[in-house]
Amino acid sequence: MVRIADLESGNYWNHMGMRTVENNAGEIEVMIEITDNLKQFYGNVHGGVIASLLDSSIAVAVNQQLDTGEGASTVEMKINYLRPANKGSLRAQGKVIQKGRNLIVGQGEIKDDAGHLIAFGTATFMVTYL
User: Which domains does the chain have, with CATH numbers?
Assistant: First the structure.
């Protein structure tokens, strides 16, 4: 199992400002504060930021399911964007749906501070053997 601290100490997570938090149910979420650097021309969070947040939240769940000597990389992802976000923070939570020998399928959702569903999606990860 990969430690969450190892994931969030990576350069990309730091660049994006992503961090993990524990929600009221004791589950790990990936959180990002909305800044002007994350917004597109119209003032809303860029779709690529939302995609990164969703991918990262599912990756947290996937990495908690890996055995010693295993790694995983995203090979496919599908996102439904439901509403824009432009202030406050976003929280994403992922979970594993199915873990096979070679592929892991997960799903996740992103909510804003008011609890509105911003986006949801699925991702497939390929298991790699280190």
Answer: 4-129 (3.10.129.10)
